Amino acid sequence: MTWIWYAPSSSWPRRPLRQTHLGATASAGASGPGAAQKKQLGIVDLRRERAPRAPAYVLALPDEILCEVFECLLEREHKLAGWTPGGSSREARRDLAAVQLSCRRFARVAEPARYRVADVFLAPSRLHRTRSFRFYRSVAARPERAAHCRELYLRLPPWHPAAPPPPCDRAVLPATESVLARLANVRRLTLDGRLPAADVWDLPANISRFMPRLRSIELVRGGDHDVARLIAGLDLPLLESLHIWCSQDGGQLADFEPAIKNKLGTAPLVSLHVGQHMRRPETLASVIGWARALERFSFRPQTGAAAAAAAACAELLPRDRVRFDTLRDMLLPHADSLRHLEIDWLTPTTSTTTDTEPELLEHAGVFDACAFARLAHLELVEADLRCAPRVAAAALFVGALETLVADCYVGHRATLGPRRVEWWAQFLREVAALPGAGRRRRVVLKNTGYKWWVPDRHRCAAAAAAAAAKLPRTLIQCLDDLGALAREGGVEFEYKIGE
After folding, report:
1. In 16-157, where does DSSP find H-type helix?
2. Which residues make beta-bridge pairs with 5?
3. Which tens digits make up the pLDDT trace of 65-115?
4. CB of 322 within 8 A of CB of 346?
5. Model confidence over 423-478: pLDDT tens digits?
6. Distances, alpha carbon 231 to alpha carbons 130, 228, 287, in Å
7. What is the spatial distance between Cα 195 and Cα 197, in angstroms, rounded to a whole number?
8. What pTM, to 2 d.p., does this model score?
9. 3-class SS at 272?
């Protein structure tokens, strides 16, 4: 017998080879001269038996860790929900779909991440009907998917309060209600638009009935009557956070204060965010009084282009607008509980849009953080710090404050110039000289930019570059010097250039 020895490559298919015979095999009873000349061909496979491979590391992870990994694919700033038109990037949706199509286990583990955030319309129009009903059909096909939803962005239709809704919108309300009735695990709800009339669709009552575990509510582009009606009609014993972005000045909210306090008096409301056009002290004092003990408060009366427009048109602002001292008096009832405070631009003067940097004012005030025993984080606008560095350091860091964040971006531009950098250098020296060695004190400059602030008189880019070239050092170099100065005094310093 002739034997052939070979070792095939690993790319060959693994199958057992049989011993084959070439030609006829002489039987036991065969005789004759030709029987001895018959040859046999034998094939022997030399491949060794390999040990079974261990599964890949990612497959050895538990489902809880895999779920956290898959959630990293979600773009939080876009609130990824594969159902909103334009609400998430195409690449993110494609990545999540590829994960679910890879294997059955990934499809099961990644499904909660896909349905965690939903962005739908209460009454989808013809433009968004298909995309909104895609979510409805998915939940209707498998009702258990609705249990994964934790955040809901509900877009309200632009119905006129005095006119009935169109028949096509009324026809889709039962389908919407059937889906919302299954979202009992929603923790955060955002309402975008004006509330529909109670005889058409009682939104506060339906929210209280469908989402009993709701902990956070945000109302965007709603009027005073919408805010008051929403809060007065809610029955949510677990509500902890309330965001109000009112499209009016809030002058009518004080009329509903008894009904609102009756509803929120029993709720554990600890976080309140107020912004956009609510600038009158009496209105803000009424809103702050809704909660029993606030831990987080954010006041953003004007941002971005609205702040620049208000600075250019000072007559649009009320004469008795909110300032540091009035805001401090409003928050004093929460002095023992307040931990986190954010204050937007309070002094919109024309100095930030003219030819000079924001200068020091003789009677300028600063927020008195020492009056709050547990305040650890304070965020201000850099242009609001107009007092002397010694006064600011004593008012901010003598108490329990640990972190001060100053936003340097106001009105589409950064406000840092050479004089402001010198002000911050002196401020850091004063903070380092305060008593209480060993306490943590941290200063963060946010959205500083990477170039010096240039006045408006330098319209063209060439003039702006020439003006910046006259400065002895760049902005980044001066910010690095501030960091070295802070470290010498035992103060933590950080700056963020921004986008």
Report:
1. 57-60, 63-71, 90-102, 104-114, 129-141
2. 44
3. 888 888 877 755 444 333 343 345 667 767 888 888 888 898 899 888 888
4. yes
5. 999 999 999 999 877 789 999 999 888 877 665 544 455 555 565 566 667 888 99
6. 32, 5, 12
7. 7
8. 0.74
9. strand
Query: Residue 73: what residue type?
Result: L
- Tell me which residue of 288, 227, 289, 217 sits closest to 253, measured CA to CA: 227
Whose CA is closest to 339, among 427, 384, 401?
401
CB 109 within 8 A of CB 63: yes
| Residue 50, CA distances (Å) to 44, 53, 54, 160 in order | 17, 8, 12, 74
For the chain, report the end-to-end CA distance as a whole number of angstroms: 79
pLDDT tens digits, 311-347: 443 333 444 467 888 889 889 999 999 999 998 877 6
- Our CA dihedral for 89, 241, 120, 65, rounded to 10 degrees, sits at 50
281 and 326 Cβ atoms separated by less than 8 Å: yes
Q: How confident is the model at residue 349 (pLDDT cuts 50, 70, 90)?
A: very low
Where do runs of H (alpha helix) occur along 22-61? 57-60
C-alpha span between 440 and 438 (Å, rounded): 6
Give the containing element (helix H, strand E) for 173. helix 167-180
Residues found in the chain: 499
Residue 146: other Cβ atoms inside 10 A? 21
The closest alpha carbon to 226, from 201, 199, 191, 200, belongs to 191
Task: Return all residues near 447 (Cβ < 8 A) that are at least 6 apart.
Answer: 407, 408, 409, 414, 496, 497, 498
